Amino acid sequence: MKKLLAAIAAGALLGAAAASLAKLPPAPPKSETEKKAEADKAAATKAKEAADLAKAQDRVVANYKKNHAAMGRK
């Protein structure tokens, strides 16, 4: 019984090792339309992030000016 369990465990370990070394096939090349769509999406994301950053910076400046004036400074 112990030999059978040892053989099953060894087989499972060999199977796991073989699976971890297996290579996936390469992804198919992207078409021009897919590349353009991906670039447009990246550009839109970058523009949105820049707008969000500008809005946050404006909010910080307004908060600084309000608190600075409240402390009696120019």
Describe the 3D structure:
By secondary structure, this protein is an all-alpha fold. It has one domain (2-70). 80% of the residues lie in helices and 0% in strands. The protein has 2 helices and no strands. The protein is elongated. The N and C termini lie far apart (87 Å). The model has no long low-confidence stretch (mean pLDDT 89).
Secondary structure layout plus pairing:
Elements: H1 2-21, H2 32-70
Helicity range: over 70%
Low-confidence stretches: none
**Overall mean pLDDT score?**
89
Provide the number of structural domains: 1
Principal-axes geometry comes out as elongated
Structural class: mainly alpha
Number of strands: 0
Helical run tally: 2
User: N- to C-terminal separation?
Assistant: 87 Å
Strand content is under 5%
For the CA atoms, what is the radius of gyration? 30 Å
Helix-strand pattern, N to C? HH
**Largest sheet, if any?**
none
Task: Describe this structure in a few short sentences.
This protein has helices at 2-21, 32-70.
Keywords for this structure?
74 residues; single chain; 2 helices
